Amino acid sequence: MRPAHKFDDALMAGAGVLNEAPAAARLARLEAEAIYILRELSLFVRPALLFSGGKDSAVLLHLAMKAFAPVKPPFKLLHVDTGHNFAEVLSFRDTRAKETGLPLIVRSVEDSIRRGSVQVAEDASRNAAQAVTLLEAQQEFEFDALIGGARRDEEKARAKERVFSHRDTFGSWRPRAQRPELWGLYNGRLGVGEHMRVFPLSNWTEADVWRYIAQEAIALPSLYYAHPRNVIRRDGLLFPVTELTPAAEGDAIEHVSVRFRTVGDVTCTCPVESEARTPEEVLTETLAATVSERGATRMDDRANAAAMERRKIEGYF
Phosphoadenosine phosphosulphate reductase domain spans which residues (predicted)? Predict the structure, then answer.
């Protein structure tokens, strides 16, 4: 008898997952909750939605359009460009913003470096430096709420953050001083100079996101689906070979079918081997995954267990 294989089991489960009644009911509940949270943004005067062109922000923007239809959502889009983003993602960002008709504000880490507010080595990742540029943009436009697509299942620091996450006058998050959130009641009260981070997808999982993308036919950058790419195997990760991340002398370059589970800064984001070319196939792979998307693909989150929490305390989203 052939032994049971976990991936085969997932394939069998994934074949009918879109029609599975409990999954559909869960997705309907999550959608209703996210729309309710987005409508609670009427508590704020100048909210902005963080839109990078990634899958979570694409889902968030889709929900925002639904929440306020037939009129446009009452907020602008904001993206912090590290200067090391994937070209396909930036192109998708601009196209999607134009389709919605929402104003898109782009602020650049490169500009922060020129001003001297950010200092990074030439060959270092700019991912963490986004926090400074984000806070500069928040102060420039006096945004009192920044809406993000972060989810609690991504990693430990995000797991303990509230849906309405208070930031002090320095833009800092204080984990031990978070406000209680009971029965869907959110505290949006702010003092002078403070702002709120709002995460309508907090209770979603990566599988929920892909199930919703499949259900709603939400467009995404092509990087999310399997495509051939030159990579290098190092420390258990696949490093993409790009102009910003070239192969070193002696590296063995492989041409592999891969997809990206996250599409952050090129210098710290790795693909995974995959043949999934549709949302349904990605969902099937996601259900079989044993490592979180950030654990499987983000070099900067492997530095130490507290890396994300430290960045969030400093103002990261």
Answer: 47-270
* Nearest CA-CA partner of 63 in 52, 49, 76: 49
What gap in Å lies between CA 57 and CA 112, rounded to an integer? 23
Cis peptide before 22 (omega within 30 of 0): no
| Domain coordinates in residue numbering, the chain | 20-208+306-314, 220-303
Residue 260 in this model has a pLDDT that exceeds 80: yes
pLDDT band at 6 (very low <50, low <70, confident <90, very high): very low
| Sign of the CA dihedral with 298 first, then 303, 306, and 311 last | negative
| pTM, full prediction | 0.86
- Spatial contact of 38 and 73, defined as CB atoms under 8 Å apart: yes
Confidence of residue 3 (pLDDT cuts 50, 70, 90): very low
Residues 227-251 as b/e (b if ≥16 CB within 10 A, e otherwise) read: bebebbeeeebbbbbeeebeeeeee
Which ranges constitute the DSSP H helices of 160-227? Answer: 206-216
Q: Classify domain 20-208+306-314 by CATH number.
A: 3.40.50.620
Burial, 98: exposed, middle or buried (Cβ in 10 Å; 0-12, 13-18, 19+)?
Answer: exposed
Determine which helix (DSSP H) or strand (DSSP E) holds 255, and give its type and residue range: strand 254-259
SS3 at position 273: strand
| H/E stretch holding 76 | strand 76-81
- Which residue in 200, 203, 199, 209 sits closest to 287, CA to CA? 209
Helix 206-216 to helix 279-288 angle (10° resolution) is: 160
Amino acid, res. 301: D
Higher pLDDT, 15 or 179: 179
Strand pairing partners for 165?
A: 197
Pairwise CA distance, residues 28 & 24, whole Å: 6
